[in-house]
Amino acid sequence: MNLAVELTGAIVERSGQRVVQDVDLTIGAGSWFGLIGANGSGKTSLLRALAGRLPFAGGSCRICGEELVGDRAARALRFGFSPPSDKLPDALRGRDVLELVGGSIDDVRSRLGTLHEALGLAPLLDGWIGDCSAGMRQRIAIAAAFAGGHSLVILDEPFNWLDPVAIFDLREVLRDMVDDGLTLITALHDLGMLASACDAGLMLADGKVALALDEHALRIAAENPQMFERQTIDRLRSGSIGEI
């Protein structure tokens, strides 16, 4: 398998506290990888470190075969990354945010392709961020991750604040983009979404790997998502770790 990301013994610290410890994972190029866990499990910290927004305190981080654990700037250049939607500046318009990342809005629109329509961006481009609802802000933040045309993209809980139709449309377009070669890494809260959308995944608990889920495990999970959810939750409650 051609690997896009390989972490070995990854450690992340925040404010002197170790929030991610000894995480190993591999992500194949052209696949959708899901990271799941409770609030405070270390998902966001791990993704922010991978995207160069935080340093790694230890371990190895290879991106497309290149060791970048000590080079935050290089990691930031490799990934499209969705900014926190609640941190988007109120005084900017939607198009301003996207142009800051990707240049002219025409170039951005071309890179987004069908994602532009799925996110319903047209009416948001000329509106002020300060006038946007949480869902509208989320749509703009997701688009920003793709505005630069990266082949590796990280989205932190992208389905939050979206209505059911938008969730369905976004999931379908993202799946098509992955099938066309995009490497997508998403933090998720929903075990059902993990089972139905992702090719592989990892569950974190207290900053450590609790469950590793390969393609075979997720294929079985998709056939019976309710059983998968129950087995996974029971396993986490019992403190058992490993692969299922």
Overview of this protein structure:
The chain is an alpha/beta fold and 244 residues long. The protein has a domain at 3-79 and 199-243: Rossmann fold (3-Layer(aba) Sandwich). It contains ten helices and eleven strands. A seven-stranded mixed β-sheet has the order 6-7-8-3-9-10-11, with helices on both faces. The protein has a four-stranded antiparallel β-sheet with strand order 2-1-4-5, covered by helices on one side. Helix 7 (164-179) links the parallel strand 7 (152-156) and strand 8. Helix 9 (215-223) packs across helix 10 (225-238). The radius of gyration is 18 Å and the shape is globular.
Summarize the structure.
The protein is an alpha/beta fold and 244 residues long. The chain has helices spanning 43-50, 72-78, 94-102, 105-112, 114-118, 134-146, 164-179, 191-197, 215-223, 225-238, and strands at residues 3-14, 17-28, 32-37, 58-63, 66-67, 80-81, 152-156, 183-188, 200-205, 208-213, 242-243. It has a domain at 3-79 and 199-243: Rossmann fold.
**Helix percentage range:** 25-40%
Catalogue the unreliable spans.
none
**CATH top level class name of the domain at 3-79 and 199-243:** Alpha Beta
CATH homology group of the domain at 3-79 and 199-243: P-loop containing nucleotide triphosphate hydrolases
* Count of β-strands: 11
CATH architecture of the domain at 3-79 and 199-243: 3-Layer(aba) Sandwich
Succession of helices and strands: EEEHEEHEHHHHEHEHEEHHE
| Mean of residue pLDDT values | 94
